[in-house]
Amino acid sequence: MGPVQHTSQNRGSRDVQASLQPRPWAGLPGSYYLTWVGVCAAAELLGIALGAGWWVAMDRIAPDPASLAGKFAMLGLKSLSGLVEGVVLGLLQGLVLRRLYPRLPLPAWIALTALLAIGGWAAGSAIPIFGGPGGEEPAEPSLFLSIVLAAGFGLAAGALFGAVQAAALRRAASASYWWIIVNAAGWALALPVIYAAASLPDAASPIWLILAAGLASGATAGIVLGAVTGLAFWRMPAK
Predict the structure, then answer these.
(1) pTM
(2) CB of 64 closer than 8 Å to CB of 83
(3) Cα distance between the two ends of the chain
(4) 56-65, long-range: CB within 8 Å, 24+ apart, which pairs?
(5) Of the four listed, 14, 38, 75, 208, which is most buried by Cβ atoms within 10 Å?
């Protein structure tokens, strides 16, 4: 057997062995990316709908608590909307991410995502419960101003969201700082969708309309968020 033939056989053997090895990046860019977008849409749809339902239920139990203790209690109860959304989002995202990043610590990912969501719902509930300066609820801004403010808040909150999640992701992915960048951009685009939909119903709206707005905004925001954050997969190889 000549050296050329021997080399060719060795190369062929290595190619066969490589094809049998698990490949975390298999399915990119098409199938995995679309799966990620779909999972983000489903997670936000379900998470926001359940979270909004809980928030409205708590609001109708005690819409305007008089005492300071009652206000703090209501803030704590309404913040639990984030627990529902965060667990749903963290679990569904984590299960998909583990296909690409097998070393991702799923419990840590879910816990960090839930803590972030609780903080977000608490921040969003504080002014309606406590009011603005002087204890009075500020006048409702215009829809355009709400969208601009939501984009700015989404940019900052998304960067924080990505940074906290990256604490878990860096164990499984290289260049995890990309997760901070794409989350800042993704939430800057997704949060205005949620705020715009939330401005449609009011306190007198039927519960079905509130839930419908939550479902529609959650799905749309999830698609936007998934489409933007999924771009990081091309920049973050698995460890």
Answers:
(1) 0.76
(2) no
(3) 40
(4) 56/207, 56/210, 59/203, 63/203, 65/129
(5) 75
Percent over 70 (pLDDT), the chain? 80
172 or 61: which leads in pLDDT: 172
- 104: closest CA among 148, 54, 12, 167? 167
5 pLDDT higher than 70: no
Tell me the C-alpha distance between 199 and 219, whole Å: 17
Residue 20: the pLDDT is 37
Question: Do residues 150 and 188 lie in contact, with contact meaning Cβ atoms separated by under 8 Å?
Answer: no
In a domain, residue 239? The reply is no
Tally the domains of the chain: 1
Residue 220 lies in a domain: yes
8 belongs to a structural domain: no
Point out which residues pair with 173 in neighbouring strands: 238
DSSP reduced 3-state for 174:
coil
Least confident of 50-64, 198-212, 218-232: 198-212
172: domain range? 28-130+138-234
Say what percent of the chain tops pLDDT 90: 38
**Residue 161 falls inside a structural domain:** yes
The DSSP secondary structure of 22-74, one letter per residue, reads --TTTTTTHHHHHHHHHHHHHHHHHHHHHHHHHHHHHHHHSSS--SHHHHHHH
